[in-house]
Amino acid sequence: MKPSFKISMALLAVLSSLGTAAHAADGTINFTGKVLKTTCSVPNKNINVSMGTVSADDFNVSGAEGRDIPFKIELQSCDSGLAGVKVKMNGTADANQPDLLKIGQDAGDDAKGLGIRIVDDANTDVPINSESKEYAIGEGKASLEFKARYVSTSPNVEPGEANAQAEFQLTYR
User: Fold this and answer.
1) Residue 4 has pLDDT above 70, yes or no
2) What whole-number distance in Å separates Cα of residue 78 and Cα of residue 87?
3) Which of 45, 125, 129, 132 is CA-nearest to residue 91?
4) What is the pLDDT of residue 1?
């Protein structure tokens, strides 16, 4: 026998010994959903929250909190099929306290040792990159009220620019 024929036969024997797989239907996955004509309009998609000027001396222990600064996200012209909405604030989390929004962009003039806490209208924390509670949508509109406050993440707060940015994402029910 030729060597190439022996190799071919050996390869055929190996391949045929691998067997075949048995397939069975073990269950069903049902996907459900609903398509609405529209969700809600957001008249002000760029919300500016002025946190004011504070003293580093007011934050002399880790966990010290500044005053509440209210802000809200207004929804209008909501589809009548919507009952509620949750908000997720997406942003960079503070390295020391990951529930807080990080201050600054790592520039030399950024304040150090502070983050921003966001709370809902019941004063419950809304951790950064997490969804809020569900807010009711009534009569085609909703006002989603929140508060922001500086929180020290270190007992040594250094002065500087204390700016941050988060994007909000709405999930409807």
Assistant:
1) no
2) 15
3) 129
4) 54
